[in-house]
Design brief:
The chain is mostly beta strands. It is built from eight helices and 28 strands. It has helices spanning 5-9, 48-54, 101-104, 242-253, 273-279, 297-301, 320-328, 383-388, and strands at 11-14, 58-70, 77-92, 96-100, 109-113, 119-128, 133-138, 161-166, 174-185, 196-199, 211-213, 219-228, 237-241, 262-263, 266-270, 287-292, 308-312, 315-316, 335-342, 345-352, 354-355, 366-367, 376-380, 398-403, 418-422, 425-426, 441-446, 449-454. Strands 22, 23, 24, 25, 26, 27 and 28 form a seven-stranded antiparallel sheet that branches. Strands 8-9-10-13-12-11 form a six-stranded antiparallel beta barrel. A six-stranded antiparallel barrel has the order 2-3-4-7-6-5. β5 and β6 (119-128) form a beta hairpin. The protein is globular, with a radius of gyration of 24 Å. The two termini are 31 Å apart. Mean pLDDT is 86; it is low at 1-11 and 16-31.
Length: 456
């Protein structure tokens, strides 16, 4: 995925950095004699009614894990304790909590502190790295807990007032206010399928997983990341929208262990000013279709190469990430309306989105026993597997699942490498890589970079 210009100038910080500490949530005491600002002249009033409603459902999270390492001098393996501090939101009265995946990823012990200082252990029900959303279940809950309503109606507008509630730097529950600075923000470098709410409400390390709430006291997003030179808030924060949060929560509550994302089966390029002129468009708008997956939802709906997709279900899209997000938040088999420009004429097509084809199971690898690739565990890439790994579903090749360090392949292959060609011929199946002799040429892609190696 290309690095956006903004990410070059600024360092992206996922806000759950730091170690667990003894900070505790503030007492649940809120004023009851304030009124919500009704207009610009009422700004001297208070946000306390919204805070009083929302804050009890926002929790502090402290997670502890064990990290494997190897001593750089002696080469002796060992273990060390690692930790993370973040925030979360109770979304069901029986103790279902939503937070960021990066807050709890790789952790073995998770402790959740409520606003009223009660503490619970928690287990992970579902962790979705692609959306950076994880769902936890508090253990030992005997009564109904305060909750926040997930508002997935997407009625927000740029300029709306919002509050960010979380646990910055582990100091305890903190409330900051601001506005929605932008909606449907893509190309942030955070995710290739994300479409974020941008806010200037102060978000700092430890706020990750906390609530972004509107003036109705509803959850409209989960605070996830900031752009900052210093690592602290610079007024550019991002939240995962409630529509995606609800999709992950519903999957977890429904018993799923993974989030099944449907796709449209089309790939496109953002319409630039030059492309707009070539298509005779009034302005740069939409995504021009460059590839259509044969037999996929887009093909069945009648999409063609050269079509310009301008909106999905009435929401404008202008890049691949925006299209992935709009389609990915729908349930499999849901019907979506695709607004298209074809030959300058507007069309509306209806597509029934489907799960990506193929097997995403990483455990079904073929182990190469002979030749220079001995010791490599290989899987044929398919759209479902590519999507699970965060890659392009349209790519073909063979992906390296693992490499035996004692095998010959460990000299030049690494986990995640994509083998594209052998001696200039495309590779699509692991059996093409049995008994590869020395002197062969492998074309690989690693971390987005492609190279051809001569194996000696």
């Amino acid at each position: 995925m290309k690095t956006p210009p903004l990410a070059i100038a600024l360092a992206l910080s996922l806000a759950a950095c730091g170690q667990p500490d003894d900070s505790r949530a503030q007492d649940g005491v809120f004023a009851d004699n304030r009124i919500l600002p009704a207009d610009a002249l009422s700004m001297k009033a208070s946000f306390a009614p919204v805070v009083r409603q929302a804050a009890p459902a926002v929790v502090n999270i402290a997670a502890i894990g064990v990290q494997q390492y190897r001593d750089p001098f002696w080469g002796i393996p060992g273990q060390r304790q690692t930790g993370s501090v973040g925030s979360g939101v109770i979304v069901r009265a029986d103790g279902v909590v939503v937070t960021n995946n990066h807050v709890i990823e790789g952790m073995q012990q998770i402790r959740v502190t409520l606003n009223d200082r009660r503490e619970f252990s928690a287990r992970v029900v579902l962790a979705d790295a692609r959306s950076d959303i994880a769902v936890l279940q508090l253990e030992g809950v005997n009564d109904r807990l305060p909750t926040l309503n997930i508002d997935d109606r997407e009625e927000q507008q740029v300029g709306d007032l919002v509050l960010a509630i979380g646990n910055p730097f582990g100091v305890g529950q903190t409330v900051t206010n601001g506005i929605i600075s932008a909606l449907n923000r893509t190309e942030t470098g955070i995710s290739d399928s994300g479409s974020f709410i941008q806010t200037d409400a102060a978000i700092n390390p430890g706020n990750s997983g906390g609530a972004l709430v509107d003036m109705d006291g509803d959850l409209i997003g989960i605070n996830t990341a900031i752009f900052s030179r210093s690592g602290s808030s610079s007024g550019v924060g991002f939240a995962v929208p409630a529509t995606l949060v609800k999709r992950v929560v519903d999957s977890a509550v429904g018993g799923a262990t993974v989030v099944v994302r449907p796709w449209l089966g089309v790939k496109g390029e953002t319409v630039s000013a030059d492309i707009a002129r070539g298509f005779g468009l009034e302005r740069p708008q939409g995504l021009v279709v460059t590839e259509v997956w044969p037999g996929g939802p887009g093909a069945r709906a009648g999409l063609r190469q050269g079509d310009v997709i301008t909106a999905v279900d009435g929401v404008e899209v202008n890049d691949q990430s925006g299209l992935n997000f709009r389609v990915g938040t729908r349930e499999p088999n849901a019907a979506v309306e695709i607004a298209v420009l074809r030959g300058g004429r507007p069309l509306t097509l209806t597509a029934r989105v489907q799960p990506l084809p193929g097997d995403p199971d990483l455990d079904r690898a073929t182990v190469i026993r002979q030749g220079v690739l001995s010791g490599a565990q290989l899987l044929a890439l398919n759209p479902a597997l590519a999507d699970r790994l965060g890659g392009d579903p349209f790519m073909s090749g063979v992906i390296v699942g693992a490499v035996d360090r004692r095998g010959y392949a460990a000299r030049f292959l690494a986990h995640g490498d994509l083998i594209l060609a052998l001696d200039g011929r495309p590779v699509t199946a692991p059996n093409q890589l049995e008994n590869v002799p020395r002197g062969a040429q492998l074309t690989l892609q690693r971390r987005g970079q492609q190279a051809t190696l001569l194996i000696r």
